[in-house]
Amino acid sequence: MRIGDGRGALAEERDGAFDYIVLDAFSDKGTPRHLISQEFFRLVRSRLKPGGLMLMNLMGRGGSDWQIQAVHTTLASAFPHTRAFVLPEEGAASLKNMILAGSGQLIGFKARYMAGFTQATLPPGYILTD
């Protein structure tokens, strides 16, 4: 485990070094832009072993949140397989804890192990670049 600027640390690693990369970097202002761009997700994919998985912990408003839609669409531009999960909250406009996953292979899961998170379908958004 390394703590610090994830992009800088990841750039120093060799290709195929990781089975999993977990991104949990958000504040009340959201996730830093350099950690949700197409260039960053391509870097992440290059550092994952074949079949490796990226997981992102985010806060958003689910399918009605244009920023979450953009992050998911950008993730999908770098990974052929993605999934989105949301922890349901009261009210469509309330902030929700979300998990986005990206992989070069199909992403399986068992709902009973998801701690209340449910799979979500997100509308397409735009691609974020540096």
Automatic annotation (TrEMBL):
It comes from Paenibacillus forsythiae. Keywords: Polyamine biosynthesis, Transferase. The lineage of its organism: Bacteria, Bacillati, Bacillota, Bacilli, Bacillales. Belongs to the spermidine/spermine synthase family. This is Spermidine synthase. Residues 1-103 form the PABS domain. It comes from the Bacteria. The active site is at D24 (proton acceptor). InterPro entries: PABS, SAM-dependent_MTases_sf.
